[in-house]
Amino acid sequence: MEVGPPPFTGQSFPPAVPGPPPSRPGPWPVVAAVLVGCWTVAVTVPAELAGWLTDQVLLASGLDRAVWLWPVVAGVTVLLAGVPALLLTLLPRSGAVRATGRAWLAGLLAAGALTLLRALPPVHHEAYLAALAVAAGLLAAVLGRLARGRAQASPGAGTVGDPGTSGRPAPTPPATGGDGTVTLLAVAAGVATVLPWAWFGALGGLLETVLAAVAATAVGVLAGSLLDARFWAHFAVGRPPRPARLVLVGGLVAGVTLLLVAAGAGQSGAQLPALLALPPLGFVLAALQAPAVRAGGPTGPGPARWLVGLGVFGPLAFADPEEITLILAATRDVPYWVAATAAAGLAVAAVLSVAYGVLLARPRGRTPSRPVAAATAVVLLAGAAAVYLGPGQPGLHGERLLVVLREQADLTGIPAGAPGRAGRDARAGEVYRRLVATAERTQPDLRRDLARLRLGPTPYYLVNAIEVDGGPAVRAWLSGRPEVARVLVSQRLRPLPAAAPTSRGDAPAPAGPAWNVSLIGADRVWSGLGVTGAGVVVGSSDSGVDGRHPALAAGFRGGDDSWYDPWDHTTAPTDQGGHGTHTTGSAVGRGGIGVAPGASWVGCVNLDRNLGSPARYLDCLQFMLAPFPTGGDPFTDGRPERAPQVLTNSWGCPPIEGCDPAALRPATAALDAAGIFVVAAAGNTGPRCGSIEDPPAPYPDVFTVGAVNRARKVASFSSRGPVPGTSKPDLVAPGVGVLSAMPGGTYATLDGTSMATPQVAGVVALMWSANPALVGDLDRTRRILRDTATPARATYRSRNPADACGGDANITGAGLVDAYAAVRTARGG
């Protein structure tokens, strides 16, 4: 340890100028700076939150991202906060206040420019990180050139005497390189800020991580250009300088500057944790200046570059901005852990501020020697690595790609076969054979190339496609191959430090048939017609199913081919989110909650933490066409004769998950050709017209279901048509306050077209149970459902006739499903 600060050299403080002392201005410039700083924070933070929330509302409403949103946020922020900051650079005579205004104005302009990059879609995160690196580097270069030009034009840095004086300018104090101790301490502090992210976060793909490091480095260089030696010289006041004032005043000004840097560093959502954790590091940077100021002048941009670069590396690398979404906020998912990490980062920054202030900024404080500073940095780096490899989520967890081939199977001319189950099974077998044959003939060359590059190919046949690892470079290479039609991003959620608690319900079990079951007349089918769905199997693709629930346990078909979990590879029916248990219960649950309590069910997990991907949706749809045993090969071990007759699908694949409008079209066409009745939810993005958009709901061979309440009025959230080329929804069912099963033997009432959809699947099960010859006759089944539906009341967004969506049929479909009338008609009665 060095004993005490080195003696003053006199470099920075020239002899006093003869003559009367300079006049001391009043406190108003400082008051103005304080007010401008508070105003800048008050404008920037709400603007960033408002921009992110608007993004989330558009996402939840099923609307396209507003490309203009973030440019507007940037423009409003720069305009409202930039004008006061500009006045600070022009009006006060205090050099420190003018330096404050310059730092804030430059920070606002830089943040505004970087914010424009959020017009890039979040799904292309690598492209955003590359653009951020380039833009931040260019801004740093421009700011550095402007600073050099200003220094050449006016060699004075403002007054270096007491704060607020307006005497003659003194030369800029030289930046001291020292022995590197300050830089090593900055590295140690930066590594400490990464610790919470190494524990709670997870890295993306290799390219994504590398680009995050490059972008963080560029943002650090930008921060160094804003908080360079010239900036700190204005706060190194007094003879000798007072470190406490440097830390307090300079730290506050630097903190606001870092807030502006954080506002521009990250896609929508990723900047939010940095807004909380980065500003307190301004005090750390100020404390790091104290030893150098005592030595004769502030340091250069090195400490800011390291500290800020490492500080923004955490949120850029360890969090996927697409997962910082309100869609995942209902459970202890990514938003929860990001908030926890931001709070931990704030605590780390506060501890660092106090520790560095006490260690470095005392008038007679001791500065650690270089070996001690280096050892501290190494220990913290080793600690971060241990945390990452231990309680963290080690490894790379980037997105995958779904490569859709040009040639899809020809399913024309499939013979109808005998009526009923036997004919349906024969059709399913022929469809399976053609699909597999097409995939095996067209995929081998591409699969060999992908395997040689170690991209982990997973082939599919229901859509002739292959899922692979890879980022933009792999996507561009694949898109150029002649056999490839297009390449979709197949989203993959990053792992959590701890699983979210299993969702449970708090409603009592029903004492009899639930209101929705009675509204559609299903209970009359049981009692009056003696039909409960026996002999029919319903397939549920969702978040899973609690196979031990008393309302569902007896209905599970069993065997080694009735459950598939492509996410976690569980071997028995289970459900953490609860959504799938609820929907399956509404289709086949016993005890009054299910429409077809005598039917059996099989299940597949296509949603993980309420999000899916094109590949996981395909996994489950393939399993439903040709179930295979646990650990089996879908291409060789599929059993189409074991396919469920009816599928309930309370999900949609929006663009944020990687789907385009045609992504699953070959899959539903194949299921239709196989005689499998596919029911799908219309979606919950109403009352906007044309809101039935996400596959598979718009497809003509899918039976699409909207939602009504007890009064037979279409729920405001229920998505509606028109849909080009077909009429949607097909009909509606109860979807408001629907009671059904939840994990752990519990019950809950939920709203959504997700709740309405399985009831229609249950009605089809009743129809086919009442008349087995109808099994596989999709056209006649659809016709009966529409012809027997009862009127439902359309609702509109307003009284404007344009809100009628082209007619009530695009809101209510054929009407409210009537189980009793449909089963009687199916039976021929």
TrEMBL record:
TM annotation in the entry: 28-47, 67-91, 103-121, 127-147, 182-200, 206-226, 246-266, 272-294, 336-360, 372-390
Segments for region (Disordered): 1-21, 153-176
InterPro entries given in the database record: Peptidase_S8/S53_dom, Peptidase_S8/S53_dom_sf, Peptidase_S8/S53_subtilisin, Peptidase_S8_Ser-AS, Peptidase_S8_subtilisin-rel
Residue runs in coiled coils: none
One Pfam match: Peptidase_S8
Keyword line: Hydrolase, Membrane, Protease, Serine protease, Transmembrane, Transmembrane helix
Residue stretches making up the Peptidase S8/S53 domain: 533-792
UniProt protein name: S8 family serine peptidase
